[in-house]
Amino acid sequence: MIWLLVLSLFAHAEAPSCRLMQEALYAKPTLDVRMVFGYKDARPARFVGDRHERAAFVDRILAPCRGEQMACGFSRDLADSDLFTKPIRVNGALKTVRLTVVNSSVATDDDENSRDPFQRWKSANAQSVFLDGLREADVVFYNGHSRFGGGPDFRPPVLARDGTVDAPSYKARSSGLKRMIASFDDSRATRAPDFAKLKILGLFSCESSKHFNTKIRRVSSAGLISSPQLMYYSDALVQSLSALDDILAARCPRNVTFN
Fold it and tell me: What is the per-residue pLDDT across 202-237, written as a single tens digit (0 to 9) for each?
């Protein structure tokens, strides 16, 4: 697995910054976690996979816990099919985890999605859950395409004439990154620096370290999970679940870094 090459590059879970993050993360009775799947097209093929990846993630968090697993044993909220809750104990204190899980695509065919008016709402909703999470949540995970530095992205891709993703367009505009930075700026404007809401941001996307880390570090002190290499979709899914396991067990994810 690619991710195994990444683990040694990051801070150990016993670092002082990790302990401070743990104290802040579990200071309140409720932990707000967002898991947002970006639009996972396979262009030039028309297949889109994020609906299936969300289903696999949800199956895992609803399953009974085994061994030391913690990303499991959740209950689906009766009024909101995207919301899952679970009680946990941290240092003897009872906490409630509120985990929101959304995906970006309507169907598994990119051509069909591009013609479907509902896709615009679906993409806007996923983007809103992600960006609002940067301002309001404790932990936010993005699992999707980096779009050559133009992500995170929740919409059908911009295509070149040959049917491939238009990389120069994403590189030139950097729309997703700009929205992300703007959300951090909004958060900083309304909160004292020592009370920043977001504690951990996970960017489970190809070469996210290269594309995003430097600019994020200028505006956020959150613990950051990212990849310096390409990520296969199954590795991204497994590692997001592993990171969630660590967080709910009151451990720092082994691949989290701090300012």
Answer: 999 999 999 999 999 999 988 899 999 998 888 999
pTM comes to 0.90
Cα 84 from Cα 122, distance rounded (Å): 19
The structural domain count of the chain equals: 1
Pairwise CA distance, residues 259 & 240, whole Å:
21
Is residue 61 within 8 A of residue 18, CB to CB? The reply is no
Q: Is 6 a domain residue?
A: no
Strand bridging mode 93-102 / 30-37 = parallel
**What is the Cβ-side half-sphere exposure of residue 163, based on CA atoms within 13 angstroms?**
8
Residue 256 lies in a domain: no
Provide the domain limits for residue 244: 16-192+201-248
Contact by Cβ (8 Å): 174, 152? no
Asked if residue 2 belongs to a domain, the reply is no
